[in-house]
Amino acid sequence: LSRESPGSWVRFHPDINSNWRRRNRLQADLRQAVARGELLLNYQPYVSLKSGKVAGAEALVRWQHPELGLISPADFIPLAEESGVIHALGEWVLQEGIRHAAQWRQQYLSNFVISINVSLLQLEDARFAEVVAAILATYHLPGEALELEVTEGLALRNTPAIDSNLQLLRALGIAIAIDDFGTGYASFSYLRRFPVEKLKIDKQFLDHVPENESSSNLVRMIVAMGHTLGASVTGEGIENIQQARFLARHGCDYAQGYLISRPLAPNALEQFLAAARPL
Ligand code: C2E
Ligand code: CA
Ligand code: CA
Ligand code: CA
């Protein structure tokens, strides 16, 4: 729809149309994806910058569509949120992630923590915390082994359910992490509202660390702020050793990113944990 060529929308129209059709199709297919077993989880480990040891892993959902192939969560999570499928999808992710975590704590790493992304819409569901508690009980996983990552993207509505969920989650020992910290417009209202145990510094702030001075200052400031709030801090999207050294030097607690590992299929994560296992 460019101003330079007024007629050009005609050319673009079919694309917009097929994008829209693809969206509708994905949205319809997504309703069945959970039941058909088309979702899978990859796990990206993260390490403590103090000890150098693996501390846990983040569960990242993928959709193996029978015709369209592997679809990224960036493409279907927003659709799931729009249609309400996020509730069933999110529950499946919790179930699967917690099941694996329980197994890995027994076999590989007794203090392994599983980090699971949850949509704010899930937190607004009055039964959310009870469902989480029930899944933990099923797999005999203590609350301390679970961390829920909430992205500060959506505006934080004033729903009473959020507060009661957060209260119960906290009582269970489950930590809340703010994901992509600093990218939303609501960072400070989240901090005021949430009992935050962790801040995850978004990749975009770390990409040009340490050579870019303003990025580096911002990162140091977020680490200090997290610690002032009694939260630990993770640097995300760490791809090189210079970034990791910068974070370690400035007291950041955890690092996650391709430098440590790409997101892995469950069996590959098991190999990773076996190799990293302290004897
Ligand atoms: P996120 O939570 O910020 O996850 C980190 C994303 O960065 C992942 O992409 C991961 O593969 C990628 N990443 C990690 N390390 C590096 C690195 O060193 N370099 C680069 N270039 N990328 C890195 P992914 O798996 O495509 O996930 C995208 C987003 O989808 C996630 O962002 C999260 O917001 C959302 N998501 C994923 N799984 C779930 C889920 O189960 N539920 C919900 N609600 N959202 C999810
Ligand atoms: Ca995340
Ligand atoms: Ca993130
Ligand atoms: Ca993100």
TrEMBL record:
Domain spans labelled EAL: 23-277
Top-level division of the source organism's lineage: Bacteria
Annotated protein name in UniProt: EAL domain-containing protein
Record organism: Vogesella oryzagri
